[in-house]
Automatic annotation (TrEMBL):
It comes from Actinomadura physcomitrii. This is Transglutaminase. The keyword Transmembrane applies. Keywords: Membrane, Transmembrane, Transmembrane helix. The chain crosses the membrane at residues 25-43, 55-78, 108-130, 137-154, 160-179, 226-243, 626-646. The keyword Membrane applies. Residues 484-554 form the Transglutaminase-like domain.
Length: 819
C-alpha cells in the first residue's frame, strides 16, 4: 500500500505540467514523494500512533528539502539548522514572488522548484496517512484532486485528458489495492475452479507446480469494469460531443429565438496579467490601417462596474437584434461635437490565440466584417461572441476616431442623467482617505478636463509611482488603498483602476478599458501587436466628445513600452498651447513613426516578416452555423451504425472462417451451455455450427424466444409451430437443425455443403422477418440485440482476462520468493 500510494501521488502530480516550463520539477517532486513515503513507513514499522505518521513524513520531507536546497547551511549537509531553515523560508518567499510575476508556464527558478517539491511532498504525506495508515483510500482522492485544481484555476486550457487518465488509473489502482488488503485481512481465501483448472479435494494439496487462485468474485470484476468504463466515458465523451455554448448543437437560448443568454468569459484582469508576464512575448495579431495620425489602441473590454474590490463589466445578454450581420453599429454615445475621421483597419489574429471571444477593435467601431456569430453591446460597443473565437480569423473594422482638443474637453459641461447614475456610482465602503486624496490631487482645477489632467500627471510624474509587473493583481479594496497611499508600485491595471475610481469620486463619468496598445510598426501601414502590448487604461466621458482615453500608466523603458499619452490630455503651457513635452511619452506626437522612437521597441522581434497585403476573410452574415448540426448528425449516425456494422462483421467472419484449414483431429466441437458452439477454427461441422449460430442470432434479433436448454430438433420444432412456417422455410429450418445435430453428436461429419446451409439461413431469416411486425424488422436491421449481447460477452471476457492478469502480477512476488 505504501508503494501504491506513492505511485498514485506521482501519477496525479503529472497534472501539474501546465504550470512549469521544463520537466525538472517532476524529478524533485518524485524525490519528495519518496521521502514522505519513507517517513510514514518508518513510523509504521515502529508501531507508533497514527497521529505521528504525518509528523514523520513531514520530517523526512524536510530532510530532503534541506539536502536539495539548503545543503550549504545545514548540519552534515541534510540536518536542518537555523541557517538552513531561514534559507528555505527566504526561498519560499522568492518562489511565491516569482509565481506572481510570471504567467504559466513559469520558469523553474529555485524558489518555484522548492514550492513545487514541497507541495507535492505534502500531498504525498496526506495520501500516505489516509490510504495506508487510516485505511481510507477513497478520501485520499481529495488531496490528489487538489493537484488537478491548481492548473485548472490558473490556466484557461486546464489539464489535458492524458494527464487526467494517468491520475484516474492510479487512483483506481489505489482503491483496488486497498480492497485487496482489506479482504486479505480475513484470512486465506476460498479456492474455486477457474479457467479450466482442477479444484483440489478438501484437505488435499494442489498438484505440484499448479497454482490455485482465489476467485475475486463477479462483483469485483463488475466493479472494475464499471470504474474503468466510467473513467473512459468521462474522458472521451466531452471530446466526442460537440457541445455549444448556446446549447447542444447550437439550440440554446442564444439562437435566433427570443431567449437571451448570459455571456461568460474568463476574468479580463486575470487575462491581462497573464499576457503581460508571458515569457515568449508572442505575436497576438497584425493589422493594417489607413489612419493618417497613426493607429489608436485596440479595445477588448469596457469595465463599467466597481464593487469595491474589482472592476467588471455589466452582464451581457444576447438576442437576435444584437447580431452584427454586416449592418452599421449603434452610434458612439456622446460623440456629437468633436471632429472625427473615418478609419479602416484590417486585422489578422494569430492562430495560436485561444478563447478570444471579444474582438480587439479601435474605438468607436461603426461596422465590422467577420464570419461567425458575433454581437455588439450597444452601450459600450464591445464586440463579442457566444460560440466563436477570434483566433486565426481576419476581419475588417470601420471606426470613427474622435480628434477632440483640450478646448473641446474643457468646454464640455453637463452629463446625461443615465450616464451620471451608472458611471459615477461609487461603493459606500470607499475609504475616506481615497476621497480626500482625489480632492487634494485636483485642487485648483476648474473643469473636469483639468481634473483629469492633474490626475494623469500625478500618476505619471509627481506622485512617485513605479511601474512593476511583479506586483500581485489587486483582489480586495485594501490592495487599492495600499497602491495609492503606501507601495505606489503596480502595472497598468492598478493605474487605470485607480484613476477611474478617483474620477468617479470627483463626479466625472469613467470606466476601465482593456485591450492592446497600437503595438510596433514593421513597415508603413503595417503593425504588430504582441502579448506584452496588453494594456488597461481609463476612459472618461465628456459631452460632445463621448468616451475619450487617458494614460495614467508610466510609459517608455520604465513603464508600458508602447503606451502613448493623447495630446488632449497634456497640460497647457503658459501660452495656452498643449505642452507636448510635459509628460515623458515614447514619442512627442502620434504619427506613423512614433513607435520606432519608443525605447521599448528595440527588444520586440519581427517574427511575422513581411506582412503587407493582409487580406481579411470575406464578410459573412454571422448568423446560423451549420457546423454543429453536421457534426451532431455525423456522430448520431456513427453511433447508430455501430450495432449494425458489428452484426454484419460477425456474419461475414462466421462464414469466412470456413475457408481456414481445420487444426487437430477431425470431429465436432463441444457445445457450450447455451446450446451453441464457441467461435473458433472450424472442423468438419464448422458450416453447421456457423449456420446454427446465425439462425439463433436472427431469432434473437427479431424478438423470438430462444431457449438455451432446447436441443436443435426441439428448437426447430418449436419455432416452426410458433411461426407457422410454409413448406420451404420449414424444410430449410429442418436441414439446419439436422446438420447441427450431426455436427454435435454424430461420428460422421455433416454432408450438407456450406453453400446450401448459407442459403437455408437466408431463407429462414426472411421467414422470421415476414412473421414479425415492421418495428421488429427495423430493430433487427438497425439495432440487432444479438450484436449487443456479443459486445457484452466480449467485454465480460476482457474483464476476466484483465482480472486474471492482475492476479498473476500480484502473485509474482510470492512466486519469486518461493523459488
Amino acid at each position: 500500500m505504501t508503494i501504491v500510494a506513492a505511485v498514485a501521488t506521482l501519477a496525479c502530480s503529472v497534472g501539474l505540467y501546465p504550470l512549469f516550463a521544463g520537466g525538472r520539477w517532476f524529478w524533485t517532486g518524485t524525490a519528495a514523494v519518496l521521502a514522505a513515503a519513507c517517513g510514514g513507513l518508518v513510523s509504521r514499522r515502529l508501531r507508533l500512533p497514527a497521529v505521528l505518521d504525518p509528523l514523520f513524513g513531514l520530517a523526512a520531507l524536510l530532510l530532503y528539502l534541506t539536502a536539495a536546497y539548503a545543503a550549504g547551511e545545514a548540519w552534515l549537509g541534510f540536518v536542518p539548522s537555523p541557517g538552513s531553515l531561514s534559507h528555505l523560508v527566504d526561498l519560499a518567499g522568492d518562489g511565491w514572488s516569482a509565481a506572481n510575476r510570471y504567467a504559466a508556464p513559469v520558469p523553474l527558478v529555485s524558489g518555484i522548484g522548492f514550492l513545487a517539491a514541497a507541495g507535492i511532498g505534502v500531498v504525498a504525506v496526506l495520501v500516505d496517512l489516509l490510504a495506508v495508515r487510516l485505511r481510507r483510500a477513497a478520501p485520499a482522492g481529495l488531496p490528489l484532486l487538489a493537484m488537478y485544481s491548481v492548473p485548472a484555476a490558473v490556466r484557461q486550457d486546464g489539464v489535458g485528458w492524458p494527464a487526467f487518465a494517468i491520475g484516474a488509473v492510479a487512483f483506481l489502482a489505489l482503491l483496488m489495492a486497498d480492497a485487496r488488503e482489506q479482504v486479505g485481512g480475513w484470512g486465506r481465501a476460498v479456492t474455486v475452479h477457474r479457467h479450466g483448472e482442477e479444484l483440489p479435494l478438501a484437505g488435499a494439496e494442489p498438484p505440484s507446480g499448479q497454482r490455485v487462485r482465489a476467485d475475486g468474485g463477479r462483483r469485483a470484476a463488475s466493479g472494475r469494469r464499471i470504474a474503468l468504463g466510467s473513467v473512459a466515458i468521462a474522458v472521451l465523451l466531452p471530446l466526442a460531443v460537440p457541445i455549444h455554448p448556446r446549447g447542444v448543437f447550437g439550440m440554446g437560448g442564444g439562437g435566433r429565438g427570443r431567449g437571451d443568454q448570459t455571456v461568460t468569459t474568463p476574468d479580463p484582469l486575470v487575462s491581462l496579467k497573464r499576457e503581460l508576464t508571458r515569457l515568449d512575448d508572442s505575436v497576438v495579431l497584425t493589422y493594417r490601417t489607413d489612419d493618417p495620425d497613426g493607429p489608436d489602441y485596440l479595445r477588448l473590454y469596457a469595465l463599467d462596474r466597481f464593487d469595491g474590490d474589482r472592476w467588471t463589466y455589466s452582464r451581457l445578454s444576447s438576442s437576435a437584434a444584437d447580431r452584427l450581420s454586416g449592418r452599421t453599429l449603434p452610434p458612439p454615445p456622446g460623440l456629437s461635437i468633436a471632429p472625427v475621421h473615418e478609419v479602416t483597419t484590417r486585422v489578422k489574429v494569430s492562430g495560436e490565440v485561444r478563447d478570444m471571444t471579444f474582438l480587439p477593435v479601435p474605438y468607436a467601431p461603426t461596422r465590422v466584417s467577420i464570419k461567425g456569430d458575433w454581437r455588439v453591446h450597444r452601450q459600450s460597443l464591445m464586440i463579442y461572441s457566444l460560440s466563436d473565437s477570434a483566433g486565426g480569423r481576419s476581419y475588417t473594422v470601420t471606426s470613427l476616431r474622435a480628434d477632440p482638443t483640450a478646448a473641446d474637453l474643457s468646454a464640455a459641461v453637463g452629463y446625461p442623467a443615465d450616464v451620471v447614475s451608472h458611471y459615477t456610482a461609487v461603493p459606500k465602503n470607499i475609504p475616506p482617505q481615497i476621497r480626500a486624496l482625489a480632492q487634494n490631487v485636483t485642487a485648483g482645477a476648474a473643469t473636469a478636463r483639468a481634473q483629469a489632467v492633474k490626475l494623469q500627471r500625478w500618476f505619471t510624474l509627481t506622485g512617485g509611482f513605479t511601474y512593476d509587473l511583479s506586483t500581485p493583481a489587486p483582489q480586495r479594496g485594501n490592495d487599492l488603498v495600499d497602491f495609492l497611499l503606501r507601495s505606489k508600485r503596480g502595472y497598468c491595471e492598478q493605474f487605470a483602476a485607480s484613476m477611474a475610481l478617483m474620477a468617479r469620486i470627483l463626479g466625472i463619468p469613467s470606466r476601465v478599458a482593456m485591450g492592446y496598445t497600437s503595438g510596433t510598426q514593421t513597415q508603413p501601414g503595417t503593425w504588430v501587436v504582441r502579448s506584452r502590448d496588453a494594456h488597461a487604461w481609463p476612459e472618461l466621458y465628456f459631452e460632445g466628445s463621448g468616451w475619450v482615453r487617458f494614460e495614467p500608466t508610466p510609459s517608455g523603458a520604465a513603464g508600458q513600452g508602447t503606451a502613448v499619452t493623447p495630446a488632449y490630455s497634456r497640460p497647457a503651457d503658459g501660452g495656452g498651447r498643449q505642452g507636448d513635452d510635459a509628460l515623458p511619452t515614447p514619442a512627442a506626437t502620434s504619427g506613423p513613426d512614433r513607435s520606432s522612437a519608443s525605447p521599448q521597441a528595440a527588444p520586440h522581434r519581427n517574427d511575422t516578416g513581411a506582412q503587407n497585403g493582409l487580406t481579411p476573410e470575406d464578410s459573412g452574415d454571422g448568423g446560423w452555423s451549420a457546423a454543429p448540426w453536421i457534426a451532431g448528425g455525423v456522430l448520431v449516425l456513427l453511433l447508430l451504425a455501430v450495432p449494425m456494422v458489428l452484426r454484419a462483421l460477425t456474419r461475414r467472419r462466421r462464414w469466412a472462417v470456413l475457408s481456414t484449414p481445420p487444426q487437430g483431429r477431425g470431429g465436432s466441437s463441444p457445445p457450450d451451455v447455451r446450446g451453441g458452439v464457441p467461435d473458433g477454427v472450424p472442423d468438419g461441422g464448422g458450416a453447421a455450427h456457423a449456420a446454427w449460430r446465425e439462425m439463433r442470432a436472427d431469432a434473437l434479433d427479431h424478438g423470438l424466444e430462444w431457449r438455451p436448454s432446447d436441443s436443435p430438433r426441439a428448437a426447430a420444432r418449436r419455432l416452426g409451430e410458433l411461426l407457422e412456417l410454409d413448406e420451404v422455410p420449414a424444410e430449410a429450418l429442418g436441414r439446419i437443425a439436422r446438420a447441427e445435430e450431426l455436427a454435435r453428436y454424430a461420428r460422421t461429419r455433416p454432408a450438407d455443403p456450406p453453400e446450401l446451409l448459407r442459403a437455408d439461413v437466408r431463407t429462414v431469416r426472411a421467414a422470421f422477418a415476414a412473421s414479425v411486425g415492421r418495428r421488429a424488422r427495423w430493430r433487427a436491421r438497425v439495432f440487432p440485440p444479438s450484436a449487443m449481447a456479443q459486445a457484452r460477452s466480449a467485454l465480460r471476457g476482457t474483464g476476466l482476462r484483465a482480472a486474471d492478469l492482475a492476479d498473476r502480477l500480484n502473485d509474482l512476488p510470492n512466486r519469486v520468493r518461493r523459488r
